[in-house]
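Translate sequence into C-alpha coordinates.
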Amino acid sequence: MNQGDDHGHDHGENPGGNHRMSHGGNHRENHGEDHRESRRVNHRMDRGGNVRVNQGTEHVNRMDAIRGGSRPVDHNARSIAALAANPACDRRAVLDAAGIDKDRTVAHLGYASRFGQSPFAITRTQEFKSIVKAHGGAHVLRLLREVLGLAVEEAGYHDAADVGGDSGHGVRHRHTAAVLNAAAQDPADAATLIDHPLLKLGVAGYDVYLEPDVIAFQAARRFHVVAIKSFAIIDGQADTGKVSAAAREAAVYVHAMRDLFARLGLDPERVSHDVVLICPKDFTNFPTACLLDVRLQLEALRRQLERLTRIDTILDRLPPDLSLDLCLDGDTPTRPVSELTAAVSAIPARYAPECLAACEMAYFCREEARACGSLEAIGRSVRDDLGGVDSVRTAIELIGGASPPPEEHAAIAERLRFVRRIFDEVVA
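Result follows.
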Protein backbone atom coordinates (compact mmCIF):
# COMPACT_ATOMS: atom_id res chain seq x y z
CA MET A 1 0.00 0.00 0.00
CA ASN A 2 1.27 3.49 -0.75
CA GLN A 3 2.78 5.53 1.98
CA GLY A 4 0.90 8.56 3.26
CA ASP A 5 2.15 12.09 2.88
CA ASP A 6 5.08 13.07 5.05
CA HIS A 7 4.67 16.35 6.90
CA GLY A 8 7.90 16.17 8.85
CA HIS A 9 6.56 16.53 12.40
CA ASP A 10 8.85 15.72 15.28
CA HIS A 11 8.01 12.35 16.76
CA GLY A 12 8.71 13.85 20.15
CA GLU A 13 5.56 15.89 19.67
CA ASN A 14 3.55 12.71 19.11
CA PRO A 15 4.77 10.52 21.95
CA GLY A 16 1.96 8.06 21.68
CA GLY A 17 1.93 7.84 17.92
CA ASN A 18 2.03 4.30 16.57
CA HIS A 19 2.22 3.19 12.99
CA ARG A 20 -0.03 0.44 11.74
CA MET A 21 1.40 -2.23 9.45
CA SER A 22 -0.96 -4.17 7.22
CA HIS A 23 -1.13 -7.95 7.27
CA GLY A 24 1.16 -7.98 4.27
CA GLY A 25 3.70 -5.95 6.17
CA ASN A 26 3.14 -2.80 4.13
CA HIS A 27 3.60 0.68 5.48
CA ARG A 28 0.30 2.55 5.58
CA GLU A 29 0.96 6.09 6.79
CA ASN A 30 3.81 8.22 8.09
CA HIS A 31 4.30 11.44 10.01
CA GLY A 32 7.27 12.42 12.14
CA GLU A 33 10.97 12.78 12.52
CA ASP A 34 13.46 10.32 14.01
CA HIS A 35 16.44 11.99 15.60
CA ARG A 36 18.04 8.85 16.92
CA GLU A 37 19.02 6.75 13.96
CA SER A 38 22.58 7.48 12.87
CA ARG A 39 23.76 6.54 9.43
CA ARG A 40 27.18 7.35 8.11
CA VAL A 41 27.58 9.67 5.16
CA ASN A 42 31.23 10.22 4.38
CA HIS A 43 31.48 13.83 3.35
CA ARG A 44 33.53 14.62 0.27
CA MET A 45 36.83 13.13 1.44
CA ASP A 46 39.50 11.62 -0.71
CA ARG A 47 41.56 8.67 0.45
CA GLY A 48 43.95 11.00 2.19
CA GLY A 49 41.11 12.36 4.29
CA ASN A 50 40.94 15.71 2.49
CA VAL A 51 37.70 17.46 1.64
CA ARG A 52 36.87 17.58 -2.03
CA VAL A 53 34.04 19.24 -3.92
CA ASN A 54 33.20 19.44 -7.58
CA GLN A 55 33.50 23.22 -7.67
CA GLY A 56 37.22 23.73 -8.31
CA THR A 57 40.30 24.39 -6.21
CA GLU A 58 39.28 27.89 -5.14
CA HIS A 59 36.14 26.73 -3.38
CA VAL A 60 37.83 23.64 -1.97
CA ASN A 61 40.37 25.92 -0.33
CA ARG A 62 37.61 28.21 0.90
CA MET A 63 35.86 25.27 2.58
CA ASP A 64 39.11 24.23 4.24
CA ALA A 65 39.68 27.79 5.48
CA ILE A 66 36.15 28.02 6.93
CA ARG A 67 36.54 24.71 8.77
CA GLY A 68 40.05 25.44 10.00
CA GLY A 69 42.21 22.75 11.55
CA SER A 70 39.40 20.34 12.44
CA ARG A 71 38.80 17.19 10.43
CA PRO A 72 35.55 17.15 8.45
CA VAL A 73 32.77 15.20 10.09
CA ASP A 74 30.79 12.36 8.59
CA HIS A 75 27.16 13.12 7.94
CA ASN A 76 24.10 10.91 7.62
CA ALA A 77 21.08 10.66 5.38
CA ARG A 78 19.04 12.57 7.95
CA SER A 79 21.36 15.56 7.57
CA ILE A 80 20.85 15.55 3.80
CA ALA A 81 17.09 15.31 4.28
CA ALA A 82 17.22 18.18 6.79
CA LEU A 83 19.19 20.36 4.38
CA ALA A 84 16.84 19.54 1.51
CA ALA A 85 13.81 20.33 3.68
CA ASN A 86 15.13 23.86 4.31
CA PRO A 87 16.79 24.77 1.00
CA ALA A 88 16.86 28.51 1.70
CA CYS A 89 19.07 28.16 4.80
CA ASP A 90 22.58 29.25 3.79
CA ARG A 91 23.90 28.50 7.27
CA ARG A 92 23.00 24.83 7.14
CA ALA A 93 24.33 24.53 3.57
CA VAL A 94 27.72 26.03 4.44
CA LEU A 95 28.17 24.05 7.65
CA ASP A 96 27.32 20.79 5.89
CA ALA A 97 29.43 21.52 2.81
CA ALA A 98 32.49 22.46 4.89
CA GLY A 99 32.09 19.39 7.10
CA ILE A 100 31.67 21.45 10.28
CA ASP A 101 31.07 19.51 13.49
CA LYS A 102 27.74 21.12 14.32
CA ASP A 103 27.35 19.31 17.64
CA ARG A 104 30.67 20.56 18.95
CA THR A 105 30.17 24.04 17.49
CA VAL A 106 26.75 24.60 19.01
CA ALA A 107 27.89 23.17 22.36
CA HIS A 108 30.76 25.69 22.46
CA LEU A 109 28.22 28.42 21.71
CA GLY A 110 26.28 27.33 24.78
CA TYR A 111 23.40 25.51 23.07
CA ALA A 112 24.22 21.83 23.50
CA SER A 113 22.64 19.64 20.83
CA ARG A 114 19.71 17.52 21.99
CA PHE A 115 20.05 14.88 19.30
CA GLY A 116 21.71 11.49 19.29
CA GLN A 117 21.36 8.02 20.72
CA SER A 118 22.21 6.86 24.19
CA PRO A 119 25.10 4.37 24.52
CA PHE A 120 22.49 1.67 25.25
CA ALA A 121 20.58 2.45 22.06
CA ILE A 122 23.78 2.47 19.99
CA THR A 123 24.79 -0.91 21.38
CA ARG A 124 21.32 -2.35 20.73
CA THR A 125 21.38 -1.08 17.16
CA GLN A 126 24.79 -2.59 16.47
CA GLU A 127 23.77 -5.93 17.97
CA PHE A 128 20.57 -6.10 15.94
CA LYS A 129 22.34 -5.27 12.68
CA SER A 130 24.90 -7.96 13.41
CA ILE A 131 22.10 -10.49 13.89
CA VAL A 132 20.39 -9.48 10.64
CA LYS A 133 23.59 -9.64 8.59
CA ALA A 134 25.00 -12.84 10.13
CA HIS A 135 25.76 -15.88 7.95
CA GLY A 136 25.85 -13.94 4.72
CA GLY A 137 22.51 -12.23 5.31
CA ALA A 138 20.48 -15.39 5.97
CA HIS A 139 17.77 -13.46 7.85
CA VAL A 140 17.67 -10.89 5.06
CA LEU A 141 17.09 -13.53 2.40
CA ARG A 142 14.31 -15.14 4.47
CA LEU A 143 12.54 -11.83 4.91
CA LEU A 144 12.96 -10.86 1.28
CA ARG A 145 11.29 -14.08 0.21
CA GLU A 146 8.38 -13.25 2.51
CA VAL A 147 7.77 -9.58 1.72
CA LEU A 148 8.64 -9.67 -2.00
CA GLY A 149 7.09 -13.06 -2.71
CA LEU A 150 10.23 -14.35 -4.42
CA ALA A 151 11.01 -18.02 -4.83
CA VAL A 152 14.71 -17.49 -4.14
CA GLU A 153 16.41 -20.31 -2.28
CA GLU A 154 19.86 -18.75 -2.10
CA ALA A 155 21.67 -15.56 -3.06
CA GLY A 156 25.21 -14.44 -3.57
CA TYR A 157 26.64 -12.11 -0.91
CA HIS A 158 29.10 -9.36 -1.76
CA ASP A 159 30.63 -6.88 0.68
CA ALA A 160 31.31 -3.75 -1.37
CA ALA A 161 33.57 -2.44 1.40
CA ASP A 162 36.08 -5.22 0.68
CA VAL A 163 38.50 -3.43 -1.66
CA GLY A 164 41.80 -4.69 -0.31
CA GLY A 165 44.27 -2.24 1.18
CA ASP A 166 42.93 0.92 -0.48
CA SER A 167 39.81 2.06 1.36
CA GLY A 168 39.59 5.55 -0.14
CA HIS A 169 36.11 6.76 -0.94
CA GLY A 170 36.80 7.14 -4.65
CA VAL A 171 38.07 3.55 -4.87
CA ARG A 172 35.17 2.18 -2.85
CA HIS A 173 32.59 4.07 -4.89
CA ARG A 174 34.04 2.79 -8.14
CA HIS A 175 34.06 -0.73 -6.70
CA THR A 176 30.42 -0.35 -5.65
CA ALA A 177 29.52 0.83 -9.15
CA ALA A 178 31.31 -2.16 -10.69
CA VAL A 179 29.55 -4.64 -8.35
CA LEU A 180 26.10 -3.15 -9.00
CA ASN A 181 26.74 -3.00 -12.74
CA ALA A 182 27.84 -6.65 -12.82
CA ALA A 183 24.77 -7.73 -10.84
CA ALA A 184 22.47 -5.73 -13.12
CA GLN A 185 23.93 -7.28 -16.26
CA ASP A 186 24.25 -10.85 -14.98
CA PRO A 187 22.72 -12.98 -17.74
CA ALA A 188 21.82 -15.64 -15.21
CA ASP A 189 19.90 -12.97 -13.24
CA ALA A 190 21.15 -14.53 -10.02
CA ALA A 191 19.95 -13.05 -6.73
CA THR A 192 22.66 -10.97 -5.07
CA LEU A 193 22.96 -9.24 -1.68
CA ILE A 194 25.31 -6.25 -1.78
CA ASP A 195 26.41 -5.00 1.63
CA HIS A 196 28.03 -1.63 2.47
CA PRO A 197 27.63 0.03 -0.94
CA LEU A 198 29.28 3.47 -1.09
CA LEU A 199 27.08 5.84 -3.07
CA LYS A 200 27.60 9.40 -4.25
CA LEU A 201 25.06 12.19 -4.46
CA GLY A 202 25.39 15.75 -5.72
CA VAL A 203 24.04 18.23 -3.16
CA ALA A 204 24.08 21.98 -3.89
CA GLY A 205 26.97 21.58 -6.29
CA TYR A 206 29.23 19.38 -4.18
CA ASP A 207 29.54 15.63 -3.87
CA VAL A 208 28.47 13.75 -0.76
CA TYR A 209 29.58 10.15 -0.30
CA LEU A 210 26.91 8.08 1.40
CA GLU A 211 27.89 4.95 3.27
CA PRO A 212 24.50 3.53 4.12
CA ASP A 213 24.26 0.69 6.57
CA VAL A 214 21.91 -1.04 4.15
CA ILE A 215 21.95 -3.86 1.67
CA ALA A 216 21.02 -3.57 -1.99
CA PHE A 217 19.21 -6.72 -3.10
CA GLN A 218 18.96 -7.68 -6.76
CA ALA A 219 16.54 -10.32 -7.95
CA ALA A 220 14.16 -10.63 -10.91
CA ARG A 221 15.99 -7.67 -12.49
CA ARG A 222 14.94 -5.31 -9.67
CA PHE A 223 17.04 -3.78 -6.93
CA HIS A 224 15.64 -3.04 -3.49
CA VAL A 225 17.20 -0.96 -0.75
CA VAL A 226 17.08 -2.79 2.57
CA ALA A 227 17.08 -0.56 5.66
CA ILE A 228 17.82 -2.05 9.08
CA LYS A 229 16.42 -0.21 12.11
CA SER A 230 16.41 -1.08 15.79
CA PHE A 231 12.94 0.23 16.72
CA ALA A 232 10.41 -2.55 17.17
CA ILE A 233 7.30 -3.52 15.24
CA ILE A 234 4.93 -4.63 18.01
CA ASP A 235 1.70 -6.41 17.10
CA GLY A 236 1.97 -5.04 13.59
CA GLN A 237 2.52 -1.45 14.72
CA ALA A 238 5.60 0.76 14.78
CA ASP A 239 6.24 4.30 15.96
CA THR A 240 4.90 6.67 13.31
CA GLY A 241 7.72 9.19 13.57
CA LYS A 242 10.46 6.59 13.40
CA VAL A 243 8.95 4.86 10.37
CA SER A 244 8.54 8.22 8.67
CA ALA A 245 12.16 9.16 9.34
CA ALA A 246 13.32 5.76 8.08
CA ALA A 247 11.36 6.35 4.87
CA ARG A 248 12.99 9.74 4.30
CA GLU A 249 16.46 8.34 4.90
CA ALA A 250 15.82 5.37 2.62
CA ALA A 251 14.58 7.74 -0.09
CA VAL A 252 18.00 9.41 -0.08
CA TYR A 253 19.66 6.04 -0.76
CA VAL A 254 17.16 5.11 -3.47
CA HIS A 255 17.73 8.48 -5.13
CA ALA A 256 21.52 8.03 -4.97
CA MET A 257 21.30 4.50 -6.41
CA ARG A 258 19.08 5.67 -9.26
CA ASP A 259 21.55 8.45 -9.98
CA LEU A 260 24.36 5.87 -10.12
CA PHE A 261 22.34 3.65 -12.45
CA ALA A 262 21.75 6.58 -14.80
CA ARG A 263 25.49 7.27 -14.90
CA LEU A 264 26.13 3.59 -15.64
CA GLY A 265 23.71 3.66 -18.56
CA LEU A 266 21.21 1.43 -16.74
CA ASP A 267 17.50 2.03 -16.28
CA PRO A 268 17.11 3.97 -12.97
CA GLU A 269 13.63 2.48 -12.54
CA ARG A 270 15.28 -0.88 -11.89
CA VAL A 271 15.89 0.49 -8.39
CA SER A 272 12.52 -0.07 -6.76
CA HIS A 273 10.67 2.61 -4.82
CA ASP A 274 9.61 -0.14 -2.41
CA VAL A 275 12.15 -0.23 0.43
CA VAL A 276 12.43 -3.27 2.69
CA LEU A 277 12.44 -2.15 6.32
CA ILE A 278 13.80 -4.72 8.79
CA CYS A 279 13.09 -4.23 12.51
CA PRO A 280 12.94 -6.35 15.68
CA LYS A 281 9.66 -8.19 16.12
CA ASP A 282 7.76 -7.40 19.31
CA PHE A 283 10.10 -7.40 22.32
CA THR A 284 12.76 -9.70 20.87
CA ASN A 285 15.71 -9.32 18.54
CA PHE A 286 14.09 -11.63 15.99
CA PRO A 287 13.94 -9.71 12.69
CA THR A 288 10.72 -8.98 10.86
CA ALA A 289 10.16 -6.85 7.77
CA CYS A 290 7.68 -4.68 5.88
CA LEU A 291 7.66 -2.67 2.66
CA LEU A 292 7.83 1.14 2.57
CA ASP A 293 6.63 2.89 -0.57
CA VAL A 294 8.88 5.98 -0.73
CA ARG A 295 7.60 7.54 -3.97
CA LEU A 296 6.28 10.61 -2.16
CA GLN A 297 9.57 11.08 -0.31
CA LEU A 298 11.54 10.64 -3.55
CA GLU A 299 9.51 13.30 -5.32
CA ALA A 300 9.82 15.71 -2.39
CA LEU A 301 13.57 15.06 -2.14
CA ARG A 302 14.07 15.65 -5.86
CA ARG A 303 12.23 18.97 -5.75
CA GLN A 304 14.07 20.12 -2.66
CA LEU A 305 17.51 19.20 -3.98
CA GLU A 306 16.77 21.15 -7.16
CA ARG A 307 15.91 24.22 -5.06
CA LEU A 308 19.18 24.21 -3.15
CA THR A 309 21.47 27.12 -3.94
CA ARG A 310 24.85 26.07 -5.25
CA ILE A 311 27.48 26.33 -2.56
CA ASP A 312 29.81 28.53 -4.66
CA THR A 313 27.01 31.11 -4.99
CA ILE A 314 26.57 31.15 -1.21
CA LEU A 315 30.31 31.42 -0.57
CA ASP A 316 30.56 34.44 -2.85
CA ARG A 317 28.10 36.28 -0.59
CA LEU A 318 30.02 35.60 2.64
CA PRO A 319 32.88 37.62 4.21
CA PRO A 320 36.17 36.54 2.60
CA ASP A 321 37.85 35.97 5.98
CA LEU A 322 35.01 33.93 7.48
CA SER A 323 36.24 31.11 9.73
CA LEU A 324 34.36 28.67 11.95
CA ASP A 325 37.56 27.16 13.33
CA LEU A 326 37.10 26.08 16.95
CA CYS A 327 40.86 26.36 17.60
CA LEU A 328 40.95 22.95 19.25
CA ASP A 329 43.48 22.20 21.96
CA GLY A 330 43.22 18.43 21.84
CA ASP A 331 39.46 17.97 22.02
CA THR A 332 38.79 21.29 23.76
CA PRO A 333 37.64 24.34 21.75
CA THR A 334 39.61 27.46 22.71
CA ARG A 335 38.14 30.05 20.37
CA PRO A 336 36.38 32.91 22.19
CA VAL A 337 32.63 32.34 22.14
CA SER A 338 31.96 35.92 21.05
CA GLU A 339 34.16 35.47 17.96
CA LEU A 340 32.51 32.20 17.01
CA THR A 341 29.05 33.68 17.56
CA ALA A 342 29.85 36.56 15.22
CA ALA A 343 31.23 34.17 12.60
CA VAL A 344 28.18 31.90 12.66
CA SER A 345 25.83 34.89 12.61
CA ALA A 346 27.57 36.16 9.46
CA ILE A 347 25.97 33.25 7.57
CA PRO A 348 22.27 33.93 6.94
CA ALA A 349 19.89 31.40 8.47
CA ARG A 350 16.25 30.62 7.77
CA TYR A 351 14.96 29.49 11.12
CA ALA A 352 11.51 28.03 11.70
CA PRO A 353 10.17 26.00 14.65
CA GLU A 354 10.34 22.90 12.43
CA CYS A 355 14.14 23.18 12.60
CA LEU A 356 14.01 22.02 16.23
CA ALA A 357 13.14 18.57 14.95
CA ALA A 358 15.94 18.32 12.42
CA CYS A 359 18.94 20.60 12.95
CA GLU A 360 21.65 20.71 15.62
CA MET A 361 21.93 24.49 15.26
CA ALA A 362 18.22 25.09 15.86
CA TYR A 363 18.37 26.40 19.43
CA PHE A 364 21.10 28.89 18.58
CA CYS A 365 19.17 30.05 15.52
CA ARG A 366 15.94 30.31 17.52
CA GLU A 367 17.55 32.59 20.10
CA GLU A 368 19.01 34.68 17.30
CA ALA A 369 15.60 34.96 15.58
CA ARG A 370 13.89 35.92 18.83
CA ALA A 371 16.52 38.56 19.61
CA CYS A 372 15.88 40.35 16.32
CA GLY A 373 12.11 39.92 16.54
CA SER A 374 11.88 37.72 13.46
CA LEU A 375 8.44 36.41 12.56
CA GLU A 376 10.07 33.12 11.55
CA ALA A 377 10.63 32.42 15.26
CA ILE A 378 6.84 32.06 15.52
CA GLY A 379 6.48 29.89 12.46
CA ARG A 380 6.59 29.88 8.68
CA SER A 381 2.80 29.94 8.43
CA VAL A 382 2.72 33.18 10.46
CA ARG A 383 5.45 34.69 8.29
CA ASP A 384 3.56 33.72 5.14
CA ASP A 385 0.24 35.05 6.46
CA LEU A 386 1.91 38.38 7.30
CA GLY A 387 3.78 38.69 4.04
CA GLY A 388 5.62 42.00 3.86
CA VAL A 389 5.77 42.44 7.64
CA ASP A 390 9.39 41.97 8.64
CA SER A 391 9.26 41.70 12.44
CA VAL A 392 7.12 41.04 15.49
CA ARG A 393 7.49 44.69 16.52
CA THR A 394 6.03 45.87 13.21
CA ALA A 395 3.10 43.45 13.59
CA ILE A 396 2.37 44.73 17.11
CA GLU A 397 2.45 48.34 15.89
CA LEU A 398 -0.04 47.47 13.15
CA ILE A 399 -2.34 45.84 15.71
CA GLY A 400 -2.13 48.84 18.03
CA GLY A 401 -3.34 51.25 15.38
CA ALA A 402 -1.59 54.24 16.95
CA SER A 403 -0.86 55.57 13.49
CA PRO A 404 -2.21 54.84 10.00
CA PRO A 405 -0.42 51.82 8.47
CA PRO A 406 1.64 52.16 5.30
CA GLU A 407 -0.36 51.47 2.16
CA GLU A 408 1.39 48.14 1.55
CA HIS A 409 0.41 46.95 5.06
CA ALA A 410 -3.16 48.24 5.10
CA ALA A 411 -4.85 44.90 4.35
CA ILE A 412 -2.71 43.02 6.86
CA ALA A 413 -3.34 45.67 9.53
CA GLU A 414 -7.09 45.36 9.01
CA ARG A 415 -6.95 41.59 9.47
CA LEU A 416 -4.75 41.83 12.54
CA ARG A 417 -7.07 44.33 14.20
CA PHE A 418 -10.07 42.14 13.37
CA VAL A 419 -8.39 39.19 15.07
CA ARG A 420 -7.59 41.39 18.06
CA ARG A 421 -11.23 42.44 18.41
CA ILE A 422 -12.32 38.79 18.40
CA PHE A 423 -9.66 37.94 20.99
CA ASP A 424 -10.70 40.82 23.24
CA GLU A 425 -14.33 39.71 23.05
CA VAL A 426 -13.46 36.14 23.94
CA VAL A 427 -11.32 37.00 26.97
CA ALA A 428 -13.55 39.86 28.19
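Note: The mean pLDDT is 80.
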